[in-house]
Amino acid sequence: MRLKNYLLASTALVALSFMAACTEEDPIANGDGTENTDGNDENNGGNSEETNDNVIVWPADTIVKLTGHYTVPEGKSLVIKEGAQIIVSSDGVGANHAPIEFTVNGNLYCEGTAEKPILFSVPESERTNENIFAGLWGGIVASATCEEMLIDHTIIEYTGGQVIEGSPAASAEIYTAGDDAYPQITTNNINGRYVITNSILRNGWSDGIYLMGGNAIIANNIFAANGYDGAEAVNVKAGCVVDVADNVMFSPNTNGLKLSSSGQSEERGMAKIQAYNNTIINAGWRRDGEKGGCVYVEKNALANVFNNLMVNCKFRAMTPSFDIPNNVDEGYNDQSVIDYNYYASGTQKSEVVFTEESGVAYSWEGYAYAHENYNEGVVDAHSVITKTAEECATNDPKFVNFPINDVALTDYVYDEAWDFQVEAGSPVLTGAYDGNDAALAPYFGTEGLSVNGQTYTSPKVEARFGAYGAK
Q1: Residue-wise DSSP of 201-224
Q2: Which of 90, 213, 303, 422 could crosslink 297 through cysteines, CB 3.0-4.6 Å?
Q3: Residue boundaries of the structural domains of the chain
């Protein structure tokens, strides 16, 4: 992860008075740093429902207040039912106020619904725009012993606390104290099975999802405001096989997708990613320099990136070191297909322009810019790329409700009224990849992934650009 070595000293934290911090001796029973209440927020003495020695259930509509680090132990499973709210204290733990971490050494199953999503958040009074990048807690960390995780219809927000001495992730050597900040979700088991779907991951200092290992389906999610001074919506490393499809990624600091085989070894195999039918908006404008902008593929990752819709992003898809093919340490994997994407631009100028670097002020300028990491003639050889102000109108995706020419390029507050479906006749409905090349098929589109006894399959590849078709 990118170096993040300072605390948000200016963030005002509201003091909360909850029960005693959890203990490792009894990490999932009442009195462990959780306070279980009913929907009226009145302590009822405990709503945890233990179905057997290895499964704990937090029932529907339960409110669980965390005042200390929480651990699902190895060999045990926690099931969180629809409508449950996990409210995390921003006070932290101990004298150094280590951000509260939700550690999964066993299995976690978040079974929300569209009508009753599960919520991981901070107290309501702290859910403000001013706190979007405050990093108020540590996020969900699935360790090397986590075999399965389901995140379905779940909202995770206000994460990104700094990893410091005493943080569980530092003690477990997952992250480095003083260098890293918590993503909203971390995975670290190369044999793990992870399904993250129909969820919202927003308002975090660091990455939305940081995959250091595992087989994963990441589909039908909304990512918004991921990363303060770096970070991505989805960040993949070696030891992963992943399908990323049908997601909306709004205003990631650097990229919607960073796909890297960093850490590749005999044990941790090459990162393999199929990324298709995603919509990425406003990526890269909050990041200085010439990094970022929508998609970044590096260090021998086998990444097929196609049928994606990039809107008002700072730069096009980048493949650094593409002149060093198939090099484990740094090169571009020349078996990757990064093509048949659609780059749309509005006409607004960024209010932040790094003139000493690229000087790019408009999306179409970034798409046309002679970037050293553009693999011209190979990457996006068949993509639709808006390169002039005149082409902005011609290539307008015609969203049902998103003012492509009005939303500031550095905006990161997501408007739930936006609708990224497109109007009939939109140009993004034609020209996308519609073949049957086996190399571009989803990894988990047929046999799927089995999680908690249920098989989940990746979305099929749609012959359109972006996450949604016509309304």
Answers
A1: EEEESS-SEEESSEEEEEES-EEE
A2: 303
A3: 34-456
